[in-house]
Specification:
The chain is built from 11 helices and 14 strands. Strands 7-8-9-10-11-12-13-14 form an 8-stranded parallel barrel, surrounded by 7 helices. It starts with a strand and ends in a 5-residue tail after the last helix. The chain is α/β, with parallel strands linked by helices. It is elongated. Helix 3 runs parallel beside helix 4, helix 3 runs parallel beside helix 11 and helix 6 packs across helix 7. 33% of the residues lie in helices and 18% in strands. Helix 3 links the parallel strand 7 and strand 8. The chain has 2 domains: 62 residues, Phospho-2-dehydro-3-deoxyheptonate aldolase, domain 1 (Alpha-Beta Plaits); 251 residues, TIM Barrel (Alpha-Beta Barrel). The structure holds phosphoenolpyruvate and manganese (II) ion. Manganese (II) ion binds next to loops.
Length: 338
């Protein structure tokens, strides 16, 4: 950490800053410039973290040297291990993985139909919500454990591993019985109790970016999961709230290269929630691959006009099939493969 002092700092204030740093068990190194004094703070990161140094009189600003998300950070050294969802590896560098399925599991027949379609099209992981975070308490809330059972049946029939959302710490045991990957939805990205709980799970966690969360917020939330011992986290950009009302959200593709540079975790893009309008999902899916996404999560429904959630943004299976062909072409153009 580096401390920059105020221009009018007095010698007494500098002595006081130095004394405080030593009191914290850290080593100060004072460098006197023409107008300012800069003080380097040397010591273990754990001792430096959280100290109220900016509150000491005469301090103008404090510049951390280490990133606050130390486990998630690229600075952590070793190359990122790909995260495995039921044997499907995401983040291996070369391969783009497609995760697809309905927003909500609605019936066994609906799920099996969609699961078979997306599998035949080239998806390698099946998604489907059994516990749904709905804006209105009167909207369909998901089938709960029945939905999880249908997901497990779809896995048995297609061989696709399954990912489903967890909203409540109390549901972890039942979801762990069926799922291959836990999804933390945008609305729960900063539910720290839930993050800690899934941090103790053996299952990988797909963490969606919050509606108004910065990239740094997302990384700090991922740090919660890793700090509890679960290293298998996937970061998902799914659009953020902006002033724009023409689309449901604004898909922040800026986040993709930034996350790839700053972290060792695989990056997933959800163009479906990102734009929220089925006609434009394919374009954003292609752009996400070009931007460097390790995986895409795309909602597909066999009868979007009958969907119990997010029908307006779901692709019909035949549109998804056509999109996969184009995703493959873009992937190859940027040196990747499907
Ligand atoms: C979903 O994946 O269906 C969902 C609810 O996503 P988000 O949390 O990104 O809104
Ligand atoms: Mn949805």
């Amino acid at each position: 950490m580096i401390i920059i002092t105020q221009p009018a700092v007095t010698d007494a204030q500098i002595d006081h800053i130095v004394a405080r740093i030593e009191e914290f068990g850290l080593r100060p190194q004072v460098m006197r410039g023409e107008t300012r004094v800069v003080i380097g703070v040397i010591g273990p990161d754990d001792l430096i973290r959280g100290k109220p140094i900016a509150a000491i009189p005469g301090v103008e600003s404090v510049v951390p040297v280490m990133k606050p998300y130390k486990l998630v950070s690229q600075e952590n050294g070793s190359l990122p291990p790909p995260v495995s969802i039921g044997g499907v590896k995401i983040g291996s560098g070369q391969r783009v993985v497609l995760i697809s399925g309905p927003c909500s599991v609605e019936s066994k027949q609906q799920l099996l139909s969609i699961a078979n379609s997306v599998k035949n099209a080239g998806a390698r992981v099946l998604r489907g919500g059994a516990f749904k975070p709905r804006t209105s308490p009167y909207s369909f809330q998901g089938l709960g454990e029945d939905g999880l059972r249908f997901l497990a049946e779809a896995r048995a029939e297609t061989g696709l591993p399954i990912i489903t959302e967890i909203m409540d710490t109390r549901d972890l045991p039942v979801i762990e019985k069926y799922a291959d990957c836990l999804q933390i939805g945008a609305r729960n990205m900063q539910n720290f109790a839930l993050l800690k709980e899934v941090g103790r799970s053996r299952l990988p966690v797909l963490l969606k970016r919050g509606l108004s969360a910065t990239i740094n917020d997302l990384l700090m939330s991922a740090e919660y999961v890793l700090s509890e011992g679960n290293p298998n986290v996937l970061l998902c950009e799914r659009g953020i709230r902006t002033f724009e009302t023409m689309t449901r959200n604004t898909l922040d593709l800026n986040a993709v290269p930034i996350l790839k540079a700053k972290t060792r975790l695989p990056v997933v893009v959800d163009p479906t929630h990102g734009i929220g309008l089925r006609d434009y999902v394919p374009q954003m899916a292609l752009a996400a691959v070009a931007a460097g996404a390790d995986a895409l999560m795309i909602e597909v429904h066999n009868e979007p006009e009958r969907a119990r959630s997010d029908g307006e943004q779901a692709l019909r299976p035949e549109i998804f099939t056509d999109l996969v062909r184009r995703i493959r072409a873009v992937a190859e153009a940027v040196g990747r493969e499907l």
